[in-house]
Description:
Elements: H1 3-33, E1 34-38, E2 45-51, E3 70-73, E4 76-80, E5 87-89, H2 109-122, E6 126-127, E7 133-134, E8 137-141, E9 144-148, E10 152-153, E11 158-162, E12 168-180, E13 182-185, E14 192-194, E15 199-213, E16 219-228, E17 235-240, E18 243-263, E19 271-292, E20 300-306, E21 309-311, E22 315-329, E23 332-334, E24 339-343, E25 346-352, E26 355-356, E27 361-363, E28 372-376, E29 382-383, E30 390-394
Amino acid sequence: MSRLYKIWTHAFKVNFLFIIAYASLFSSVRAQQVIEKQDIYTFEKSQYEKVDFFADASPMTKEKCDGVIYISEGENFYKRILPIQGMVNVKWFGAKGNGDKNDKGTDDTQAVKKAIEVLSRIYKGYPLSGGNVYAGFTLYFPAGKYIVSETIKLPNGITLRGESVVSTIIHAKTPKILFTNIQGFGKNGIEQIASENVIVEHITLTQGGIELQQATGSLIKDVRIMNLSGKGTDTGIIIRLSVNLKIENVKIFGSSGVGIHYEDAAGTGPSTTTTLDRIWVAHCKTGMLVDGKTGGSHGIFSSKIYNSIFEYNDIGLEFKGNVENFSVRDSHFEQNRKNTILISGRAKIFFENNWTDKGGITIQSNTDKNSKIFLKEDGMPVDNLSSINNIFYQQK
């Protein structure tokens, strides 16, 4: 064996031993940086990483520990390592989701409120240019029925996500608005403060609806809202002063009032650019009410309904007040008992490729003479044509 080979072998052994020692030291340090804890509610094991600073870059203190995301061990502080999706399980905060078929179970209101309060403090938003806000977290509701007895306020950038519409239910103990983005009044005591970029998805709501005001850039998707009656609320979704709001694949079933109430209200500007796609509204007094009631520079503008179903309501779809540049396309109207589509006020509406089994568009006598109704490849008849000056047909 050559001397050179012996030297090389010795060097290799030394390097190998050094790597082993370094790896062992690194593992030891890593073990001190990451600890494992069993969740007291879900009994799952979670890892926590050692930190010296809070989410806002301020030094950690025991007062900043919430016991769920941030914890302390002796003089050290740790932050929970979230799953890859970044979702926070509402059950970590004590929610049970154990409601039964008779709507009996633990009241999860305080657990949900605590989760939102803690996460809003950790993921606190800050303003960007153009009136935009940077913020956001996802609060996840695993399969179960969650009983709630208060209206829950949704902050900027929140995503409420269930497992699916058939496995996650949030039930209002008594009829009421379940979720609102209205935070309260501003310093002047008049102007309401409303959050933006709110997402609600993959959840069924029973005996309670959603209220959204302004709600710029918000989304309601894959949601079912059912069994709405009583003084608390008889409306599935209330929309006011919205901008760039999207409602997709939503079913509202069974309301003694209005399935979706899209209304203008006194505020900074009109309601605009709201898109409703694949909505299904059935067994309501009024399926959807589009009410641009304030007039003047206000109203409901540049909004649309696509690929939707309105059936077994007293009134399928109603337009009131100042409504302009509104489109209804590729939608289905069936067994609406009193009116399929009812129009009054000042309306400029475009209908294309819709179907109805009976009835059609009814124009009330108080409709503005300058209203314009456009029908393209649309088989719905129009009643009371003499009420307005402008109606335009374009067939195949």
